[in-house]
């Protein structure tokens, strides 16, 4: 088995493609089961955020795994596979490991260094664990990716500016509202993870008074109480839109929450002359596409943020994280090589036990006068001799296998002892594939 990561992000696809690819939380278990039911895919973890959808998989072959995963994503999104291929990045083997560690450390994020991706990866791993779609390889990859992300944030200043998608969006909003957002009335639509992050960020930057609305009033009430904001019923949305300058919308709705008619009505009720700036952080989008261009309305979505290039960390900080990633990739590849030799070592020990058992049967057939105690003594002695002979070579071969080029030692053992070890098929694999990412 080897690792394959396939996905689309703000780097390779616009928001129209990402919203078709996006996967509601309720659909993730079903899609994970569909992935691991494919011929070349044995394990899968699925990450779906506002600016990326990607699959991490353990596959028995590169081309077969690529085709299986692309077909599942195509069927889910309704985008023909031939069209979808132009928006996907693909990483295989070592490149897949490196990509996962760069993602977890924030190096591949729209806002470099943001920490939200760690929570999103943790949720994706938890979903895969609950669905039993993560096996030994992906359990290890996800655990190490989360650890690498924590190292990056703890040991470098990659996130010292506290940047996130929300802070980047607010910087864009400030450009349209005179540069200072302090005291600007604002509304957050949605009380999920991104909504909660938005409320926390708005509060910290002095935006307010702040109102929160959500289809589930209880969640809006709890979030408002935690931050000293005011929860408003979703039925009052039209009125509130006419009273605020900033809207952050981050719901999980599959249909636009802010329709053209709703926004047009709200804009008509505004009397202060300020534009209404809507930061649409949802995928699928919360703002209806036909609302674009309404007088007095500014909409900033994921596409707009992707081109704004806000608040990049210092080169020294990103270089420090890249160095951490490189070292951790080497460690993980060593673990993979060591794990790959384990079946060969197990097969060697099994072969030795079979030889001992066969020789014991021959001996006892020749010496029927042996008592049960004598038979047990001879059997234990033979087993101890074999285990002692095998101990040092098997320990050493595990050490050698963890080094670059270590796969040759497993092959050598199989050849020398004529071992029959079931191995993953890599006949159609390529050494490393790195797509646009």
Characterization of the model:
The chain is α/β, with parallel strands linked by helices and 437 residues long. The chain folds into three domains: 2-155, Beta Polymerase, domain 2; 165-308, Rossmann fold (3-Layer(aba) Sandwich); 332-416, no CATH class. It has helices spanning 15-21, 28-36, 62-77, 81-84, 94-104, 116-130, 136-155, 165-176, 193-204, 217-227, 237-241, 260-268, 302-308, 315-366, 372-401, 407-416, and strands spanning 2-9, 41-48, 52-59, 89-92, 186-189, 210-213, 230-231, 246-249, 276-280, 297-300. The strands form two sheets. A six-stranded parallel sheet has the order 7-6-5-8-9-10. The protein has a four-stranded antiparallel sheet with strand order 2-3-1-4, with helices on both faces. Strand 2 and strand 3 (52-59) form a beta hairpin. Helix 5 packs across helix 7 (136-155), helix 6 (116-130) packs antiparallel against helix 7 (136-155) and helix 14 packs antiparallel against helix 15. The radius of gyration is 28 Å and the shape is elongated.
SSE layout and pairings?
Blueprint: E1 2-9, H1 15-21, H2 28-36, E2 41-48, E3 52-59, H3 62-77, H4 81-84, E4 89-92, H5 94-104, H6 116-130, H7 136-155, H8 165-176, E5 186-189, H9 193-204, E6 210-213, H10 217-227, E7 230-231, H11 237-241, E8 246-249, H12 260-268, E9 276-280, E10 297-300, H13 302-308, H14 315-366, H15 372-401, H16 407-416
Helix pairs in contact: 5-7, 5-14, 6-7, 7-14, 14-15, 14-16
Overall tally of structural domains? 3
Total helical elements:
16
Q: Class of the largest domain, according to the CATH hierarchy?
A: Alpha Beta
Helix content class:
40-55%
Which structural class is indicated by helix and strand composition?
A: alpha/beta
- What radius of gyration results from the CA coordinates? 28 Å
Unreliable segments of 5+ consecutive residues: 424-437
Count every beta strand, where a strand is a DSSP E run of 2 or more residues: 10
> What is the N-to-C order of secondary-structure elements (H for helix, E for strand)?
EHHEEHHEHHHHEHEHEHEHEEHHHH
Query: In CATH terms, what is the fold-level topology of the largest domain?
Result: Beta Polymerase, domain 2
Main β-sheet: number of strands, strand sense, barrel status?
A: 6 strands, parallel
Please, what is the average pLDDT? 89
CATH architecture of the largest domain: 2-Layer Sandwich
CATH superfamily of the largest domain: Glutamyl-tRNA reductase, N-terminal domain
Q: Which range does the strand content fall in? A: 5-15%
């Amino acid at each position: 088995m080897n690792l394959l990561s396939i996905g689309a992000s703000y780097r390779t696809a616009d928001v129209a493609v990402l919203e078709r690819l996006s996967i509601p939380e309720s659909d993730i278990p079903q899609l994970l089961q569909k992935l691991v039911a494919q011929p070349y895919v044995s394990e899968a973890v699925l990450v779906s955020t506002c600016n990326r959808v990607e699959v991490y998989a353990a596959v028995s072959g590169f081309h077969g795994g690529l085709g299986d995963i692309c077909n599942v994503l195509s069927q889910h999104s309704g985008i023909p596979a031939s069209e979808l291929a132009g928006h996907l990045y693909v990483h295989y083997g070592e490149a897949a490991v490196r990509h996962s560690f760069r993602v977890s450390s924030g190096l591949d994020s729209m806002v470099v260094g943001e920490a939200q991706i760690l929570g999103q990866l943790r949720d994706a791993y938890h979903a895969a664990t609950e669905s039993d779609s993560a096996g030994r390889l992906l359990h290890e990859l996800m655990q190490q990716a989360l650890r690498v992300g924590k190292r990056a944030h703890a040991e470098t200043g990659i996130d010292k500016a506290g940047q996130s998608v929300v802070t980047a969006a607010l910087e864009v909003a400030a450009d349209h509202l005179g540069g200072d957002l302090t005291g600007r009335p604002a509304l957050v639509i949605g009380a999920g993870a991104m909504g909660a992050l938005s409320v926390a960020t708005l509060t910290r930057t002095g935006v307010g008074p702040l109102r929160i609305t959500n289809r589930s009033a209880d969640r809006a009430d709890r979030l408002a109480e935690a931050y000293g904001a005011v929860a408003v019923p979703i039925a009052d949305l039209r009125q509130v839109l006419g009273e605020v300058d900033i809207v952050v919308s981050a719901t999980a709705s599959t249909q636009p929450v802010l329709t053209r008619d709703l926004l047009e009505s709200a804009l008509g009720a505004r009397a202060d002359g300020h534009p209404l700036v809507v930061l649409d952080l949802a995928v699928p989008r919360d703002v209806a596409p036909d609302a674009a261009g309404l007088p007095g309305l500014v909409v900033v979505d994921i596409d707009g943020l992707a081109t704004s290039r806000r608040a990049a960390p210092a080169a020294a900080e990103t270089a420090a994280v890249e160095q951490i990633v490189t070292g951790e990739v080497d460690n993980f590849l060593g673990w993979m090589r060591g794990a790959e030799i384990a079946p060969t070592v197990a097969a060697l020990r099994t072969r030795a036990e079979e030889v001992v058992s066969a020789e014991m049967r021959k001996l006892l057939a020749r010496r029927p006068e042996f008592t049960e105690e004598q038979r047990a003594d001879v059997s234990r002695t033979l087993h101890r001799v074999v285990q002692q002979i095998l101990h040092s070579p098997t320990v050493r071969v595990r050490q050698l296998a963890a080094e670059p080029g270590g796969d040759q030692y497993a092959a050598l053992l199989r050849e020398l002892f004529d071992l029959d070890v079931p191995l993953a098929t890599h006949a159609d694999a390529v050494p490393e594939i790195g797509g646009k990412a």
